[in-house]
Amino acid sequence: MADTRETLLSLTDYSVAFDTPDGVVQAVSNLDLDIAPGETVAVVGESGSGKSQTFNGVFGLLARNARTGGAVNFLGRDLLSLSSKELDKVRGRDMAMVFQDPMTALNPAMKIKRQLAETLEIHRGKSRREAEREALQMLKQVGIPDAERRINQYPHELSGGMRQRVVIAMALLCQPKLIVADEPTTALDVTIQAQILDLFRDLTQSFRTALVLITHDLGVVAGIADRVAVMYAGRIVEEGKVDDLFSRPAMPYTAALMRSIPRVDREAEAVEPIPGRPPNLIHPPSGCPFHPRCRFAEEKCVRERPPLGEVSAGRRAACWFPFIDAEAGTGGENALAETANV
């Protein structure tokens, strides 16, 4: 669980924009998010909502046509003000990323042993022998069978699940304070997905590492996250503890996401896709960006953009008519009918 007395990572008025021939794509807008040591935060939303670009910017992995704004405070330093050389010293040592496709993080021409050991040699100053010994131990810790043989193989000789475990081992080698996992289970079958999520849960508790899990799948979130941030059109539109958000979403977009997930306790016909498409971020709609797809939109939603404000203790939502009334602590006019179907 998180240590809420301190903040490890703080994004303040954070923005990411891309200059394109068609105009400026405002991928992330005025985002505020704090992550505490040891906390697991899930960032969810449809494709194109800005989830990955938010943290690509934190890691300095954006395309050349990108511009960032605001502040990203990590361990007391603003990452956006660091040079590439200074950022290289932070990445891998104090924070690490696990990508959706492990082959994007692994060199196909190098054996697993060399790739893992190199991380420790560069960031921790270990000798080659010492680094290889620790690399082998980490492979065992992430559950790779016959690790003594696997460590001498090339990435293409491993299964997809094993490659993902290798990438997780690489991320954990320097015992970073923060790991960002971007859709780490999407390309894996259901059984391996469960194993990887269990692995994340166990290892983050063992190392007291904060974990940011980026996903479009709310089903992945329920069993692992402490807190959830829901993104839409480059902004956080709802944030809260996972149990609270799942039992009673405050924002219509969150409720719509939850209704779109197949569940074993509902008929297949009960799954409702969200109508329409995500907005064009070069020419976003006026007011609330979700209003063209929202069944509860009113005139104010079309005219004015709602701020991300507190709707109950520990809950924030960007909605003029949330399903939770901040003052009364009860649902709004449409809350009971809407959340009953989630």
Task: Report the uncertain regions.
Answer: 326-337
Radius of gyration: 21 Å
Q: Could you tell me how far the N terminus lies from the C terminus, measured between alpha carbons in angstroms?
A: 27 Å
Look at the structure and name the CATH superfamily of the largest domain.
P-loop containing nucleotide triphosphate hydrolases
- Main CATH class of the largest domain: Alpha Beta
Shape: globular
Please bin the fraction of helical residues.
25-40%
CATH architecture of the largest domain, by name, is 3-Layer(aba) Sandwich
Total count of domains: 2
Query: Could you report the average pLDDT, rounded to the nearest whole number?
Result: 88
Could you name the CATH topology of the largest domain? Rossmann fold
Number of helices: 12
Order of helices and strands: EEEHEEHEHHHHEHEHEEHHHEEH
Proportion of residues in extended strands: 15-25%
Main beta sheet: 8 strands, mixed
Q: How many E-type strands?
A: 12
Broad structural category: alpha/beta
Strand order of the largest sheet: 6-7-8-3-9-10-12-11
Secondary structure layout plus pairing:
Blueprint: E1 9-20, E2 23-35, E3 40-44, H1 51-58, E4 66-74, E5 77-78, H2 84-90, E6 95-98, H3 112-124, H4 128-141, H5 147-150, H6 160-172, E7 178-182, H7 190-207, E8 210-215, H8 218-221, E9 227-232, E10 235-241, H9 242-247, H10 252-259, H11 299-303, E11 309-312, E12 315-317, H12 335-339
Parallel strand pairs: 3-8, 3-9, 6-7, 7-8
Antiparallel strand pairs: 1-2, 1-4, 4-5, 9-10, 10-12, 11-12
Subcellular location: Cell inner membrane
Keywords: ATP-binding, Cell membrane, Membrane, Nucleotide-binding, Transport
Family: Belongs to the ABC transporter superfamily.
